[in-house]
Amino acid sequence: MKLSGDIVYSNGEKEEEEEEVGEGKSGRKLVVGYALTSKKVKSFLQPKLERLARKKGILFVAIDQSRPLSEQGPFDIVLHKLTGREWQQILEDYHEQHPEVTVLDPPDAIQHLYNRQSMLQQVSDLNFSDPHGEVGVPKQLVITDDPLSIPLAVAQAGLSLPLVAKPLVVDGSAKSHELSLAYDQFSLSMLEPPLVLQEFVNHGGVLFKVYIVGEAIKVVRRFSLPNVNKHDLLHHTGLFRFPRVSCASANAEDADLDPSIAELPPRPMLERLARELRRCLGLRLFNIDVIREHGTRDRFYVIDINYFPGYGKMPGYEHIFTDFLLSLVKGEYRRRISTS
């Protein structure tokens, strides 16, 4: 059975009107300066995005990291995904000098998503409950040193096996997205801190990747870890390591799934959750990985949040993203056009 999510646009304007805002009668283009890794440039700036952007009057310009940012541009928007204190300071200084430029997103806000403890704490603090369902985070424990101390720490915290282990720091590397599943106490000492341990929640082997672009959301299904039953706990021991399990190659959109597992989370609930996370995180470009507890319809968990995720894997991303960029400056361009 094939089920698919909907695209929700950040506004209901017609494309013709957006083109007028992006370039308009004045011929003024919307200039987006970008500072991305070469890997990110390849995955994000795909030809279909650049073609549509040009059609709508949006120009992407690479930021030269060897030159002062203040000497480049002028930019309407700065789009970035670089790490490091030096780059953060450059952006903060630039925004102070050019407050009219939109920086996506503020570097100090992004820092919260580079640590899995602070990342999910934001969700926990929401105490999110909605008529359509409840959203929480799995019970978790942070381990910063001595792997031999992990079994005792887990027992004292009251966590139940199996446990999912994830690196504490998210630095964009493949290793920071790897995870391990520990079935018994003895295997816990084989883990490598610093890390976060999460109680494993059975979720039917499917997670929902919720992409957020401003006010727009897009939900896709990805295969995930299968359920663990009592038989598995009795007959499996040790540590099982997995690469990134929710990547595009794990696409579950066309899979023949049990409808109770494949059913997307209620859209009104996700829209409200996205709105509250945008507010508390101070971000507009991120995604959340959501699972539904197996055997329930309305109990959900957020297990990961990523800043500026792989939008190139999101169906229709070029339309959603260009709509979003235009919406940021629409009012400003209308004022310019009216006074030109």
UniProtKB/TrEMBL annotation:
Residues 132-326 form the Inositol 1,3,4-trisphosphate 5/6-kinase ATP-grasp domain. Binds 2 magnesium ions per subunit. ATP binds at residues 116, 166, 198-209, 224. Mg(2+) 1 binds at residues 289, 304. 1D-myo-inositol 1,3,4-trisphosphate binds at residues 40, 81, 177, 209, 306, 310. GO terms for cellular component: cytoplasm. Its EC number is 2.7.1.134. One of its GO terms (biological process) is inositol trisphosphate metabolic process. Monomer. This is Inositol-tetrakisphosphate 1-kinase. It comes from Rhynchospora pubera.
